Amino acid sequence: MNPWPRRVLTTILTLTVALATLAGVAVAGAVVTTRSMHQPVPTRSHPAASTAVPSTGPGSLAGDVSGQNGRRLVVAFVVGTGGTIASDLLAPYDIFSSSPAFRTYVAAADAGPAPLEGGPAVLPTYTFADVDANPALTPDLVVVPALTRPSGSSEAPLRTWVTRQHDDGARVLGVCTGSLVLAATGMLDGLHATSHWSRIHALEADHPRVHWVRGRRYVEDGSVTTSAAVTSGVPAALHLVAELAGPAEAQRVADLHPELRWTPTETTSIAADHFTGSDWPVGLDYVMPWFRPTVGVALRDGVGELDATAAFEVYSQSAAARTVALGPGDTVRTQHGLVLLTTRLVHAPHLTRVLVPGTRTSGAFDARLRAWADNRHLAVERLADRSGPDGPGGGGFAAALQDLADHTDGATALTTAKMVGYPAGGLHLGSRHRSWRTVLLGILGLALAVLVGRAPVALARRRRPMRRAEDSREGSVSPASQTRGSA
C-alpha cells in the first residue's frame, strides 16, 4: 500500500488537533482575562450616594459660571446593570463636575451598586424613576458610556430612558462604544458618528443607516456627539463644556489636567488606527493571563475621578496585570461626590505592588497604607506624570501608561495607548524591560498543543505492533486447527 495518503492524513489530523488545542487554550485565557475586568460587587449594604457637588478647590473660578439661560446645566451619566466601562464614565464625569456651570449625577435603572468594567463598582446617585419624578433633575445632557451588553434586553430600560430624554430635548454624548447603545435605539440613523476604531467596520455592517466616520476624536451632528476610543471622551466633554459654558471655562477645566495639553482650538483629526504585528505583546497577555501579577490601586476620599480610573483602564486594556481597588473602608467618596466600592486593606488578596493615583495626600490613610504595605513587604508607588509638571490630579492616563511601560515594555504601553485612544507623543514609553511570563506560557501552550496533536498518531503507532502480534498468534494457531479438523 502506498504510504503517502496515510502520512498526509496523519499530518492533517496532527495539525487539526494541535490547532484546536491551542485555540482552546487561547479562548480559555481570553475568558479569564475578560472576567477579571469585572471586579466583584460586594453584597453588603452601603450608604446612599448623594448628589455630586462641583469642586470648590483652588482651581474653581472666583465667580459663578453659568450655562445656558444663566443656570447650571444638568448632566446625567447613565450606567448599566450588566457592566459599564469605568473610564467612559469617570473621566468625563470629572471634566463636567469640575465646572460650576454643571450639575452632575449618575443614574441607573435601580439603586444597587453598578459594576464597572475595569474599575470598582459605583453607587448611582439616582434611579431613572427618581429623575423622572423630580423636574429639577431633568437632564440637559445625557452621557452614555460603553456598556458590556449594549443591545441586550437587560439594558432596555436604559435605552428607553436615554431615547426619551433625547426626544424631550436633551443633548447626548456617546463615549467610545457607547455609540453601540445609541445605534441600537435608532438615534444615530442618518447622522454622522464615530466609535472605537476597532468596532467601526462591524458597526458599518450592523447599522448601515449611520454615516460612520474614521480618524476623528469626536463627531458632533446636531444634538448628538459621539467620541472615538476611551480617552477621547475627555476632549469630547471639554468641547461640550466650551460650547455650553464658554471656551475660557473649558480651558480652565483642562488646565486641572495639564497632561491633556488640551486647547479649544485643538484639531479633532487623529490617526485611523488598526491592529498591527507590533501589538503581539498585548495579544499574548490577553490570551495567557495565568500567573500574572495583581496590582492594588489605593483609593481614598477626595481622589479625582479621572486619576482614579486611569490605572484600572490601562492595566485592564493591556491585560498585563489584574487590579484590585483598595480603600481604608468599604467605600470611598471621590472628589466630586461619587461613591466607589473598595476592598478593605485587611481583606486584600496577595498583591505584587500598590499604586496610589493622584498627588493629593490624605494623611491618616497614607500613613496606614504605608504601614500595611511595609508589613506585607509591598512597594507603594505614586502615579505622577513625568512628561511635565505634575498637575493637581497627578497625571491620569499619562502617568498610568508610563507606569505600565516601566513594568512591562514600551511596545505594550504603546499598544495600550492606541487601544484607549491616548496620544502617546511626548510620553516616556521606551522601556526595554519585558516580562517573560507570557512568552514562556506561550511556549508551554505550543508544546501542549504539539503533544496533544501527536497523541492520536502515537496511540495508533502503539496499537499497530499489538495488532501485528495478535494477527501473528492467530496465524500460528489457525493451521493446527485445520489439521485437527481434517483428521
Automatic annotation (TrEMBL):
<dbReference type="Pfam" id="PF01965">
    <property type="entry name" value="DJ-1_PfpI"/>
</dbReference>
<dbReference type="InterPro" id="IPR002818">
    <property type="entry name" value="DJ-1/PfpI"/>
</dbReference>
<keyword id="KW-0472">Membrane</keyword>
<protein>
    <submittedName>
        <fullName>DJ-1/PfpI family protein</fullName>
    </submittedName>
</protein>
<feature type="transmembrane region" description="Helical">
    <location>
        <begin position="439"/>
        <end position="459"/>
    </location>
</feature>
<feature type="domain" description="DJ-1/PfpI">
    <location>
        <begin position="78"/>
        <end position="241"/>
    </location>
</feature>
<feature type="compositionally biased region" description="Polar residues">
    <location>
        <begin position="478"/>
        <end position="487"/>
    </location>
</feature>
<feature type="signal peptide">
    <location>
        <begin position="1"/>
        <end position="28"/>
    </location>
</feature>
<feature type="region of interest" description="Disordered">
    <location>
        <begin position="38"/>
        <end position="65"/>
    </location>
</feature>
<keyword id="KW-1133">Transmembrane helix</keyword>
<feature type="region of interest" description="Disordered">
    <location>
        <begin position="462"/>
        <end position="487"/>
    </location>
</feature>
<keyword id="KW-0732">Signal</keyword>
<dbReference type="InterPro" id="IPR052158">
    <property type="entry name" value="INH-QAR"/>
</dbReference>
<keyword id="KW-0812">Transmembrane</keyword>
